[in-house]
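seq:
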Amino acid sequence: MKVVVLDGYTLNPGDLSWKELEELGDVTIYDRTSPCDVIARSLGAEVILTNKVVLTSAILKELSPTLHYVGVLATGYNVVNINAASDLGIVVTNIPAYSTMSVVQHVFALLLNVTNRVAHYSHQILCDDAWTRSSDFSYTDTSLIELYGKVMGIVGLGRIGSAVAKVANALGMSVIVFTSKEASELPPYIQKVSMRELFAHSDVLSLHCPLTEETKNLVSAEKLQWMKPSAIIINTGRGPLIDERAVAQALISDRLGAFAADVLSKEPPSSDNPLLSAPRVYLTPHIAWATFEARTRLMQICVGNIKSFLSGNPVNVVNRL
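struct:
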């Protein structure tokens, strides 16, 4: 069996082993693949693994004589034309729930950096000698924020949103959510509210809903007007959930307290992305999923998906055949 990994570097930059995958057949691993090289590198492959390399309808048709399986090395699978794959009888799988707690951890890493200014003070001490030159034992040049008693608002209450709610509750925050779930299904510490109530009452707003036509630009100029000027928005979901220009303008005009995110609408971002020059923006480069433990689980699930497919009982299939 010929297996091609089109962009394996982000999953395994060198600290994991491809051994279990390589035991399944003739495996070729590329760190990265440009769009113009996809077909040439994939010809004759029975199995293709991709993270962010796009497999269009035309590409799938070109490869379909031999291609039987596409494994997406992520939870989201929009990089594959699902309808074309189904029409061609190609099984497409994804990797669900491998990074839940790593993403939750990152949500609060971003939030605590905003409220406790950890990166700021570390830089002040190590690069500017600010503490060394201080007249007092405790040096501050910014205000700090206590989360206890604040309101955590969450959009979407799947695995990640539910876990974020649990941690927020443990920190003494009140938790309100916008969710399709019935109020009777929710734990007693979670209150279901309308979208307007969510934006109006949240001290912290964390986004955990899927990206759809309905949720694109969910955080819009209109909804930002509903928010407290001290509010903090956290986005570890999908970049296009945010109207980036509207958020940047709200920060510039002091109508929003802070914005922290691990995702942007275009990745890597363009140098003219308005968030890169707006005040009180805290960004990380799409790494919430990338702990060693989460990537290890991803690799294990990926191999398990292929083994299940080869046994005739595919799992984590995202298309209809």
